[in-house]
TrEMBL record:
PANTHER family membership: CGI-12 PROTEIN-RELATED (PTHR13068), MITOCHONDRIAL TRANSCRIPTION TERMINATION FACTOR FAMILY PROTEIN (PTHR13068:SF78)
Protein name: Catalytic
GO MF, one example: nucleic acid binding
Region annotated Disordered, chain positions: 16-37
Single GO BP term: DNA-templated transcription termination
Protein source organism: Hibiscus syriacus
Comp. bias regions, Polar residues: 16-29
InterPro entries: MTERF (IPR003690), MTERF_sf (IPR038538)
Domain of life: Eukaryota
């Protein structure tokens, strides 16, 4: 492929430095056959097996487009089979639209890598409503769209009507009033299922002997509680707290961040050190302090005991 052809080809594959425009183009797809350099990328892909000699140029160009952008084409095609039939013009339109919303070219590999479904989204019915939601429901200014989307790319694959608005309504009913915090710090809560994720985790906190009001207070103070696994986090940590640490439930109410610390790397080792020293320390002091601060706390309490 000549230098001129390569430049034209890359331009057609979303590498243009022109001002973003998300109107689909009508230009024909390049008919130039791919030369040796692209083959080094393309032949590693499963679609390039020797048994698939009749693979279309359009698919080859699409794979190259993804690879040039830094996206694992095999993973993207596996997670989103619709990519096989979408046009390069459509991909260009999606990319141009996101850039028009302030998303940078360098952000796209991570965003599309995490959510390849975005590449076959409908701009009018899927993507535009998300940005309207950010603006109208979360009060996010246009110049901060990038910050929110980079924090949680899954927003772009979530239905505003069926997911984002119901989650926001539920969270506000619980007492989440800080829209800025939801947008910039905890947007993952908005893409979490109310029925299958948020409600079950609140119910589990209540099952530990905590009232509904106290459980709400805990998640408001530590929103990360909604992101922890019941089986892999809550259950083993609460069991250790109750049976090994002989913990008081009031401590968990006061320090819900307990569940954010690693059981094996922080909770158990620190508890063992406290038991050896024979001193009594608040749960927050045991876990929040650095290693040096923790040793100092033990030394000071041993001297004063």
């Amino acid at each position: 492929m000549s230098a001129t052809a390569a430049t034209a080809f890359q331009s057609s594959l979303c590498i243009s430095s022109q001002k973003p425009s998300f109107s689909p183009t009508n230009s024909q797809e390049p008919k130039t056959h791919l030369a040796s350099k692209p083959k080094s990328l393309l032949h590693k892909h499963p679609l390039y097996s020797s048994a698939r000699h009749n693979i279309s140029l359009q698919i080859k160009e699409k794979i190259l487009c993804l690879e040039i952008m830094g996206i694992d084409s095999g993973k993207a095609l596996s997670l989103n089979p619709s990519l096989r039939t979408t046009s390069l013009d459509s991909l260009n339109s999606i990319i141009s639209f996101l850039q028009s919303k302030g998303i940078h070219q360098k952000d796209l590999p991570r965003i599309f890598g995490m959510c390849p479904k975005i590449l076959t989204s409908n701009i009018k019915t899927d993507l535009n409503p998300v940005f309207s939601f950010l603006s109208q429901d979360l009060n996010v200014p246009e110049n901060n769209y990038r910050k929110v989307i980079n924090k949680c790319p899954r927003l772009l694959t979530s239905s505003v009507r069926d997911q984002l608005k119901p989650a926001l309504f539920y969270l506000q009913r619980l007492g989440f009033k800080d829209l800025e915090a939801l947008a910039y710090q905890d947007p993952v809560l908005l893409v979490s299922s109310v029925e299958h994720t948020l409600i079950p985790k609140l119910k589990f906190l209540e099952s530990m002997g905590i009232s509904t009001g106290e459980a709400k207070s805990m998640v408001l103070r530590c929103p990360g509680l909604f992101t922890f696994s019941i089986e892999n986090n809550y259950k083993p940590k609460f069991e250790y707290f109750k049976e090994e640490m002989n913990g008081n439930l009031e401590e968990l109410k006061e320090f819900p961040q307990f569940f954010a610390f690693s059981l094996e790397k922080r909770i158990k080792p620190r508890h063992v050190e406290v038991m050896k020293s024979g001193v009594k320390l608040p749960l927050a002091n045991i876990l929040k302090s650095t290693d040096e601060e923790f040793k100092e706390l033990l030394r000071n309490n041993e001297v004063n005991s």
